[in-house]
Amino acid sequence: MSLTAQQLAALMPDATQLESDEPEMESSLHYAQLALLVACLEWLWRDRSDFFIGANLTIYFSREQLKNKEFRGPDFFLVKNTEKRPRKSWVVWEEGGRYPDLIIELLSDSTAQIDRNLKKELYQNRFRTPEYFWFSPETLEFSGYRLVNQQYEPIAETDSGWLWSHTLGLYLGIQAGMLRYFTETGNLVLSPQESAQRLTEQLRALGVEPDV
Q: What is the mean pLDDT of residues 49-78?
């Protein structure tokens, strides 16, 4: 008996509640870097509701992958033009077939080879993620790739060593040992805490003592 698409969909299990299955981050330095990447972009785009940021969150992209338990979870990924809401994981077939538009991996001794090779091939050939970056919080190794004719090509760096992201509309670059975002005009994208501190300094410069 043949089934309609609607009948087939009704028989499929609900995958929206799949839990993430990612290991803990390598170190407190990795945690701090990941938190900074998330916080700064969330704050910059605080008036937008059309994106999702995944932080150390599993991406489920096939039912075969579920059976084999070959889970893949980038340290940081961004999906644009989607609903901004909490998710326990990113389930590709529950998200209209959408894969990340940008991925950042934080290198460590135990993951560097996988990030540079296996994951790079997966993101290029299966995910078709337009931009892929990696950064080591320990050694400060930093590279970026853009998908050109279905192949990743290195992104040329500026004189400052920054890499432009078309997806973000921002530069990525290293400052004070951390990977940060910079605007097209070269301004550092601040975190909420840095923004509050700058406002406090500006008020005090005007002779106004802010309420604590």
A: 83
